[in-house]
Amino acid sequence: NLQESESENKLDGETASDSESKSEFGGSPPVPTSDDTPEVLNRALSNLSSRWKNWWVRGILTLAMITFFFIIIYLGPMVLMTIVMCVQIKCFHEIITIGYNVYHSYDLPWFRTLSWYFLLCVNYFFYGETVTDYFFTLVQREEPLRILSKYHRFISFALYLTGFCMFVLSLVKKHYRLQFYMFGWTHVTLLIVVTQSHLIIHNLFEGMIWFIVPISCVICNDIMAYMFGFFFGRTPLIKLSPKKTWEGFIGGFFATVLFGLLLSYVMSGYRCFTCPVEFNNDTNSFTVDCEPSELFQLQEYNIPLVLQSVVGWKTVRMYPFQIHSIALSTFASLIGPFGGFFASGFKRAFKIKDFANTIPGHGGIMDRFDCQYLMATFVNVYIASFIRGPNPSKLIQQFLTLRPDQQLHIFNMLKAHLVDKGMLGSLEDA
User: Fold this and answer.
1) Is the pTM of this model over 0.85?
2) How many CB atoms neighbour CB 256 within 10 A?
3) What is this enzyme's class at the first EC digit (predicted)?
4) In the prediction, which pLDDT does 28 show?
5) First to last CA, the chain
6) Of all helices (H) and strands (E), which one includes residue 300?
7) Are 289 and 271 in contact (CB under 8 A)?
8) Which residues pair with 99 in a beta bridge?
9) Residue 117, Cβ neighbours under 10 Å: how many?
10) pLDDT(154) > 80
11) How confident is the model over 259-298, as pLDDT tens digits?
């Protein structure tokens, strides 16, 4: 009987060391079991089985969230950035609350206050870096912003150092280990949530298409994997998520790649989606108007000979971005779900069903964005590696902020370089 009990604990992801930690840090965490489904849906779906009731609840709330997604897209990039920040704060709150609820009996001094203070510090650092990087002309035009930009990193470090000292002063006897544990909990949460959310904002400023297509691919994969798994799922995929199946995983992959191609084709034709967000000095407003790059101009591609006999075409006209969308949708389908598996492992470790009960049938905000954060990192790395090149306008802006003697020195160096390359002479002859 003892061996059977130990094996059951191991199957549930708990080891002997976990049990010791629980006794030291305050016992098992609570498992939320309340039904958070709105009463109107409970009455409307009362005659259905629990399986089909859950299907309809998830479906109705999914449509509502997609509708909300379309509305905020229509409102523009600044509203999207605000929504991303709100989602980030809510996800941070859900994860920190789990730690607080699990170990609340010790009543750690300043734990919640310091957690939110560190969130403020990290957001100040990242948002300051983003504003300086993307809206340099605006920062240089306003004296207070210019001063804050010049000493931004020092101010950020001073703010963090203040929080660090406050943490050290809050240490109390007999709870040192637990307090350092929660200090690490807060910083890992900041790393996962805040850093990734700012990568999403960076992607957004490169053009709304780099924000909408990746997020939509993750949403599509989540929906289609659920649909294929619900109707055709038979083979379990991974023990961390017993309801996930190979049928849903494979079906979601092909559906997401096709969806990514179609969505990219539609969005590539609109400048409001393809142009980066910039600040217009003349109108004192943020704009998304530009001449589309080659990525968003239709080009003709030759179809491989193997496929010509199947489709009956020799060439196809498509946007180059559609080729990149294949990489984005493939990652969203094959690697993105591992963000969900990671979250599932985290929840099983603390024996909770969801991060919260914010969205009926879906759990908390973090339950919906666990894959999005991993996707955001990939998109940011992908843009930096394969898309983004040096920006001449930003280089000129920085050049103009230098002292006259520094500008003259750079000018002479550039002139000598062009003469050595033979380019300056040919320009003078022309």
Assistant:
1) no
2) 28
3) transferase
4) 46
5) 93
6) strand 299-302
7) yes
8) none
9) 18
10) yes
11) 999 999 999 999 989 998 887 777 767 788 888 889 999 9
Distance CA 288, CA 80 (A): 14
- One DSSP character per residue, 245-287 reads EHHHHHHHHHHHHHHHHHHHHHHTT-HHHHSPPEEETTTTEEE
Task: For residue 92, report the phi and psi dihedrals to the nearest 5 degrees.
Answer: -60, -45
Separation of alpha carbons 233 and 247, rounded Å: 5
Strand partners, 317: 300
CA distances from 47 to 42, 59, 227, 230, 361 (A): 9, 17, 22, 20, 17
Separation of alpha carbons 192 and 178, rounded Å: 21
How many Cβ atoms are within 10 Å of 79's Cβ, its own excluded? 13
Q: What pLDDT, on the 0 to 100 scale, is given for residue 2?
A: 39
Of 39, 61, 58, which is closest to residue 50 (Cα–Cα)? 58
> pLDDT value at position 104?
64
CA distances from 412 to 42, 69, 409, 427 (A): 75, 52, 5, 16
CA-CA distance, 60 to 81, in Å (whole number)? 26
pLDDT tens-digit readout, 355-404: 887 776 667 788 878 888 889 999 999 999 998 866 666 677 677 778 88
User: Which region among 20-24, 68-72, 168-172, 330-334 has the lowest average model confidence (pLDDT)?
Assistant: 20-24
CA pair distance 225, 333, nearest whole angstrom: 9
**DSSP structure class, residue 301:** E
Quick one: angle between helices 320-334 and 208-232, nearest 10?
50
Q: Quote the CA–CA distance of 366 and 91 in Å, as a whole number.
A: 5
Q: What type of residue is 20?
A: E
Evaluate if residue 83 carries a pLDDT over 80.
Answer: yes
Residue 278, strand partner residues: 287
